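Action item from last week, closing it out:
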Amino acid sequence: MPPNVITYNTLFKLLHDAGRTEQLPRLLDEMRSHDVAFSEYTYGILAHSYVRARQYDLAMQTLHEAETRGVRPNVELCNIKLMAYRAQRNTTKLRQLFFIDMPRANITPDAYSWSILLTASFKYECVTQCH
């Protein structure tokens, strides 16, 4: 039986948990060679792995690809973008996503979304403005 999306998602999650992002391209190539379609979860775990590895451009490319392939944005995918913006100290894009783009897409921030926003605001804005 050939591998399917669940097989690959499991492997991506294992690599993510182990911090082995450098092995993702080989597995992605294999997945594509087997013509296995990506799922929403596939895009999410890949983008999250790239954020964790500080490969923000790859994370954003992955999320952009998801959108162009018809994956509807949701709070989990938005949280990954929020994490990337926070890590890059880009509070302008973080706030735009949180206060403009998410509401426009009818996406309600969850507790983790708020945590990302508040920690970024405090860490990168309040600290510099308060001193």
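Closing note: The two ends are 62 Å apart (CA to CA).
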